[in-house]
Amino acid sequence: MPRFPRNYINSEYFHVITQGINKSYIFDNSDDIKFYIKKIYSIQKDYNITIVAYCIMNNHAHMLINVNDLKNLSKFMHRLNTCYGKYYNSKYNRVGYVFRDRYKAEGIYSQNHLYNCIRYIYNNPVKAGICKNPQDYPFSNYKSVKCKDDENFVFIDTEEDREIIYKDYINTFLAKNNIELKDLMDNLNLLKELVKTLHFSFNVSLRKISQNLYIHRLTLSKLLK
Known about the structure:
The protein is an alpha+beta fold.
């Protein structure tokens, strides 16, 4: 079970990403995807969760899940991926792990955040060049949502992507505000703005922020209060 950040207790919506081991295809054809989707809906009631949005690609899956108890989310994902792993290994006469790690989850904290996440999930096949419009992709529960685009909400597939994106954001932030990293402590308003964006919008841990900004975690923690 993944370790959830403490602020996740304030969220009932989670963007869940699960990926094939070594980024390999784990949904080789439409029957595999249909099996996974059928399993999602057949077991969700057992854990008192609601699937708000999903999109199943060949080597990964995105879901937006509403759940009141993080333990139920973990149990649901464990059962779902265990069932699919057994199905996949049996069908293709293979052994070993099917999924990379277990899964990743990001908390959603506002209505705009929620709607932007839904659009991000549905736009995955468009971004991959599979179709021109999200409604044309057969393996999602596409529904149209209207909201203002907000660049502060960043949704990603892997931890490697996250690190590249938030490091680029730090450099862009420093350049935009004409300030060097070593001078951030002299401008607490800018430092607070950067730390809050990294922690709440990019879901970067205080430990990682501390390593990148060279500022002690206790100091960063005080800025979030």
